[in-house]
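Problem statement: downstream parser choked on a complex file, so we are re-checking the raw output for the pyridoxal-5'-phosphate run. The parser issue turned out to be on our end (a line-ending mismatch), but while we're here, posting the original submission so the record is complete.
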Amino acid sequence: MTIPVRQIDDPRLSQGRWLRIPGPTVVHPAAVKAQTYDLFPHRGKQITPFMLELYAKAREAHRTEGQVLVWAGSGSAGWEAGITNLLSPGDKVVVTITGAFGERFAQVGKTFGLDVHRVEVEWGQAVTPEMFAESLDEAGDVRAVFITHNETSTGVTNPLRELAALARAKGALILVDAVSSAAAMPLEVDEWELDWVFSGVQKAWMCPPGLMLAAVSERAMRASASNRMKRFYFDLAAMSDAARRGGTATTGALSLLYALDAALDAMLDEGMDAVWARHARLGQCFRDGLTEMGVRVLAEPAFASSSVTAFHTPGGQSAEAFQERIDTCSGVAIATGQGPMATTVNRVGHMGWVNQPELEATLEAIREAIQAE
Ligand code: PLP
């Protein structure tokens, strides 16, 4: 079998410089190493203390005293696990739709028979508290809200704290897709009274793909205990019991858990406030760099994301051709837009194991590609 290896001749292009899509992102060096550690019996005495510590670190990073659970799976597992545990067919939910991932959240809700009410904005915009309040009022008796914290398809961050406060005042459960926001921007699970906050470790958590993390409130646990939806692998009670005993309900993805543990150490050493501030700085620096080149950022400035930037392709060429040129000129990989913006918009991730030099290399790659046109 041949495993693909990126051949990079230019010594300036370490992995950290060329992989600039919004996930998977560059894996932290300590997480790379941790994956090679020995495996132990997954319910043995060596793993229990390790897992209890891992859970404690995950709680700290989520700013919660409640449980943070971890399943083998990608971020999408968080939609399904949240819905099947917290909601029952026919429940009314209000869903923020700011791009492709909000759309997917609504779709998953429909798949499981929920009564989905959409609060939708043009791509590049955020859902404002005013709009959200109006939608909640119109919908009436709402069981839950689904909020995409950071819309990866557009590079827009919704004002989660304010939206959550409105939902809480109505007594609705709050389910948050934090796939591209967790570990990159302020996310206060307890203070903002969020009930189900899920993410995938291949984004700002600096790990390879394969784990879904979910922070769960006591309200969510109670809702799960009384709900009628069928589930097995994602059953909250089973996972919560196992986690309390220092394990996972099924065989834990040990090597990925080692990687996550190492990444959490790195993050907590830096400090979550410092991690979030670094991302905010990098986001601003990247948008400023694009604007200086005359490139138009998609997101409305007040809601521009700290973890991903979507921008219109310069010179009216197709996004695919533009990316091809960047790859040829500089070896840097960026992503296309999604859905209706697949051919006109490009996206760059600046989350996780990234700092100023990598972003400057990306800006330089974009500049060269524009000049080569
Ligand atoms: N939600 C958001 C905001 C995302 O960005 C993604 C993936 O990019 C997902 C959900 C789905 O995650 P995954 O592809 O890991 O299943």
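For whoever reads this later: The radius of gyration is 20 Å.
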